[in-house]
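Q: For a teaching handout, I want to show students what a protein-ligand complex looks like in token form. Below are the inputs, and the small molecule is adenosine-5'-triphosphate. Please produce the holo structure.
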Amino acid sequence: MTALLELRKVQARYGPVQALRGVNIDVPEGTVVAVLGANGAGKTTTLRAVSGTVKRDGEITFAGKPLRSGPEAVAKAGIAHVPEGRGTFTDLSVTENLRLGAYTRRDRSVKADIERMATYFPWILDRGDQRAGTLSGGEQQMLALARALMGRPRLLMLDEPSLGLAPLIVREIFRIVRELNEKEGLTVLVVEQDARIALDSAATAYVLEVGTVALSGTSAELKGDEAVRRSYLGY
Ligand code: ATP
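A: Here is the structure, written as tokens, with adenosine-5'-triphosphate included.
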């Protein structure tokens, strides 16, 4: 069976820097897939190659069709990208950020969807008018996630959701991601430096090293792999 998202021999470069050197990744529908790796391995670039925000070569198919490049085409295809650093509109309110997340949709159930988001992030109901820039780091990450979900994506791409957050908040964010996957069948591709939390949440994972997939397997296989344990799990 073909996966919802397939990357084949994907390459990407920033001027002279070849960031991806032929990456193959499968994201089956309804699963959580993690991309792990050290600083500079190409994790962020992998997501940027999918969303077409970096020049890429190779093949990317989504739902069985070649994926057109560029943020607009990718959003229309049903892919939401929460970039590193979150990308919330800090001068806008929580509610305004959520409404913007629904911009690709034609239907008018935005209010119902904000209520649906509140089942995962109850605090957004009381904070609708608060300026996003004044939220805590964890709340901003959750808002970025909620905003992405307002577009009702088929695939959610999350870049390093743990960045700069306390371990308790990181666990809460991953718990919500798992709940979305289990309850709503949301497919997730998550890039993460914290291998431990990522492997606890993902079904399968890919380890990138200098722009190529060095290892891949189920989370259980990778947790049992000596090299992964030593390099990424620290035990
Ligand atoms: P990190 O965990 O540190 O974010 P990463 O695995 O996400 O790392 P990438 O950000 O994808 O790695 O970077 C891959 C390579 O591309 C690195 O060598 C990096 O220095 C380079 N790179 C990334 N962005 C740019 C850019 N805008 N211009 C030039 N080189 C870049």
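A: Two things your students might notice: The mean pLDDT is 92. The first strand starts at residue 5 and ends at 14.
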